[in-house]
Design goal:
By secondary structure, the protein is mainly α. It is built from ten helices and five strands, in the order H-H-H-H-E-E-E-H-H-H-E-E-H-H-H. Helix 2 crosses helix 3, helix 2 packs antiparallel against helix 8 and helix 3 crosses helix 8. The protein binds zinc ion (ZN). The site of zinc ion has 5 residues, from helix 6 and helix 8.
């Protein structure tokens, strides 16, 4: 099984497209706007990472969280039968990030099945924490990406037009932020697909053909 090939194929645009397609309002995005909803959040995430790095130099992500007054909590009541959470959770009211140690352990063992040794517990923890830190920054001075970007028109009945934000653009930004904060050679969204592969939920060919489909949908 060659995970390196999957990681290489999963470039920022393809992974951002995967994220975008998970948005409830995806089908309402005009085709010629898809590039906009992918590229703008990537730019914002990357720029924010540069600014945070400049400000905090070599501090670890946990130290940066501390400097920014974000609490980090490790969930103790995670059960074995629960679906593995491939992310943490940010609570803007409490300025708190919740991390899920059991889920991270399960991720680690899935990657171990694929012989990806560098995706160990501590590294995965750091990746997921960085993603949530971005949501904290969005809740503060940056403002949320989905609010910054243009809303999409959704027509209800014939004349009533409503405008909806594309919430998943925040995650696209968070992934770009994480990649640049940690100098990753891959887009963190690929971890979800490697997890499915490492647990035997899917096969390499299916992932590759899904990535090809995503690629074609961007450049249609
Ligand atoms: Zn997120």
């Amino acid at each position: 099984m060659d995970y390196k090939w999957i990681m290489a194929k999963a470039d920022d645009k393809i992974m951002s497209m995967a994220e975008l397609m998970e948005d409830d309002t995806f089908k309402k995005i005009p085709e010629d706007k898809i590039g906009y909803y992918i590229e703008e959040p990537i730019k914002i995430g990357k720029k924010t990472a540069e600014e945070v790095r400049n400000k905090y130099n070599n501090l670890s992500i946990e130290e940066i969280c501390h400097e920014m007054d974000v609490k980090i909590e490790r969930e103790k009541d995670e059960y074995d039968f629960e679906i593995v959470k491939l992310k943490g959770k940010y609570d803007a009211d409490k300025k708190k990030i919740t991390m899920y140690p059991r889920s991270i352990k399960k991720m680690e063992s899935a990657y171990d099945n694929l012989n990806i040794k560098f995706l160990n517990y501590d590294f995965l923890y750091e990746i997921l924490l960085t993603h949530e830190l971005f949501h904290h920054i969005e809740a503060g001075e940056l403002g949320s990406i989905s609010d910054k970007l243009e809303k999409v028109d959704v027509f209800k009945f014939i004349h009533i037009k409503k405008q909806y934000p594309i919430f998943k653009t925040s995650d696209i930004g968070a992934n770009a932020f994480t990649k640049h904060m940690l100098n990753l050679s891959f887009n963190p969204k690929v971890l979800n697909y490697l997890y499915l592969l490492g647990t035997g939920y899917t096969e390499e060919e299916r992932i590759i053909s899904y990535f090809n489909e995503l690629n074609e949908s961007i450049y249609r």
